[in-house]
Amino acid sequence: FVDFDPVKAKAAGRAPEGMDADTAALFPSEFVESELGLIPKGWEIGSILTQAKLLSGGTPKTERPDYWNGNVQWASAKDVSQANQAFLIETERTITDKGLKESATQLIPAFGTVIVARGATTGRMVLFGKEMAMNQTCYALVSSIGTPLALHCQLRQAIDVLVHAAHGSVFNTITTSTFSTSKSVLPSAKTLQVFEQIALPIFERILTATEECLSLANLRDALLPKLISGQLRIPEAEAMAEAAI
Questions:
Q1: How are the residues of the chain apportioned to helix, strand and coil, as percentages rounded to the nearest 5?
Q2: What does the DSSP assignment read for 33-98?
Q3: Which residues, including other chains, have CB under 8 Å from residue 100's CB and lie 6 or more apart?
Q4: Which of 137, 55, 58 is nearest to 104 (CA)?
Q5: Of 91, 98, 92, 107, whose CA–CA distance to 61 is shortest?
């Protein structure tokens, strides 16, 4: 896909490998010149924002205790940059519904891609595994054509260019103009939607595995001190672990 192998195959008179006829029909049989080099005929060059919405975040007032420690996950640049998996499902801090309503932050839907926009970790990105809020050091991109996973993969491909285009006096800073002026290869919406159908079960399994790992880690942290202190016996711990799994 990335190397245009289906187009190369069709241009050479061969059937693309690894796909059925309907999928192969989505790809043209020739290339055209563009400002980014040869691209498949019918594809376009443009800003990623032609297929996505850019959302910003905010921080509730820290001196208001009624804004904090609620049920809304609130992601910071630290949460995003230290995420060691594809999905972020738990954040260091949470906010209340009131904090969400009375601040500039907003809810980002599950499968939205969030990118650190400023600081030493500019360009780090992660998928939200659930609906969350975030602070103003990040941007979220949400697909406007119903293909969030294809968008995430496109951003993975384009992030080096975005970071290179960032500017700042101390740290790099990605701005709205960074996204709007950047140039990417944009496949047709139909091609992206077919990709989404193929990718969705894979990413859903990754998300499920991430959630299971977090549940087991929390269970371990809860049981281990009790086992060491003798407050809990091994058979009881095993029963709790089986119930959790």
A1: 40, 20, 40
A2: --TTS-EETT-EEE-GGGSEEEEE-----TT-GGGEEEEEEEE-HHHHHT--SSEE---SEEE-HH
A3: 60, 72, 106, 107, 133
A4: 58
A5: 98
Number of H helices, E strands in the chain: 8, 12
What is the Cα–Cα distance from 115 to 21, expressed in whole angstroms?
Answer: 36
In a 3-state reduction of DSSP, which class is residue 132?
strand
Token pair in block for residue 39: 């691209």
Tokens of 63: 């001196």
Calpha distance 152→108 (Å, rounded): 14
pTM of the model: 0.86
Over its length of 245 residues, how does the chain's per-residue pLDDT go in tens digits? 457 999 999 999 999 998 999 999 999 999 999 999 999 999 999 999 999 999 999 999 999 999 999 999 999 999 999 998 999 999 999 999 999 999 999 999 999 999 999 988 999 999 999 999 999 999 999 999 999 999 999 999 899 888 888 776 556 789 999 999 999 999 999 999 999 999 999 999 999 999 998 888 888 888 888 878 887 777 776 776 677 66
Number of neighbouring beta carbons within 10 Å of residue 60: 24
